[in-house]
Amino acid sequence: MISARRVLGRLAYGSRYDRLPVGQRVYVRPGERFARQVQWRWRLRRTPVLSLEEYAATRELGEIEEFLSCMLCGEPRQQPLFEPRGDKGWHYHVVRCPSCGFLYRNPNVRPERLGDLYSSGYSGFLTGAYAANRQRRYQLTMEAFSPVLDQGEGRRLLDFGSGVGLFLELAEQRGFDACGVDLSPDSVERANARLTRARAYHGAPEDVPEIAAGGFDVITLWSVLAHLPRPLDDFQKFRDLLAPGGVLLILTVNARSLQLKAYGSAWSGFTKNHLMFYSSETLPTLLRRTGFAGVAYAPHYGDTIEAGTARMAGPLQWRLRRAVDATDGGNMMRALAFADEEAITRWGDGLKVHRLRRAGLPPVSSVPPAPSAPAGPRDLTDSSEMAT
């Protein structure tokens, strides 16, 4: 059965874009960008805002789940927007914080049960062509923030959520003193089988003395941020693990993606194990509250576009890049967080650094981790300053 969306697309554009991947069409078809922005505003306007009690009364709570207030600002109200579903029977609910705009899964997975998602079999797909594509994505992101990751001699690197060691292998090649941690025992075993100098560990950073001591020049989160159920706690730990002048590199799905606005609950960023969804509007709050001094972004146009392997005419590639730049709407978000002013001075040249002010922000512990807690102070404004 042909969907109504496909029929409308055919009526509006004919068949001229049929050869493009579905995810790229939203960036290049005339008028699409404007239509999706209007569609998003209309969705927000017509969706009710509920108290946490009202919301919880309409949702079932799974065995490993809990209801949450906003992890970034403490707002207990919810705006239910999406209900992603997978072909293997999984489904969940995604809400938006009406105060700060943060998107997150609610109910969410309890931190102590997070390992249930990765206990076995999770590493099976991190091989073959998928692994090669992932390494290419890492390399493109490293190039986007050059020279931060160009040379690793004499520098320590921690890959948090290191999987089967695909990035650690690249870090070895660039001379880093590298190590990683992961919740999947299968992944850790596979990683150590492929690595020579670097080492992967099972568990959390505080479980490994060599990592808990800190002093890292670089920490990387490759497609990991969306998996963290307590981001404030985790980012405080990352900040403490960084050495003076250190940086935190992030690659995650982008909650400002035009594809999210276009496809809603069917967005590719809503995968089974994703818990929270960030954008350049919400990530600064997380970084400010955990002591980082600044953040810079690099646009993501798509792996095939950036690698030069896309089967797309030059004018269409230009149109896609223009749409991403105009909306901050790429499907992935790349960010480089600076631990302190020393890091900005050392690595900020050539990047548009957003300096983060912490004046008036509540301490990390004031954000309620459970629905029974009262609403905490809200960070309603983006107080970042621009510096180049």
From TrEMBL:
Residues 362-388 are annotated as: Disordered. It holds the Pfam family Methyltransf_23. It comes from the Bacteria. Residues 365-374 have a biased composition (Pro residues). This is Class I SAM-dependent methyltransferase.
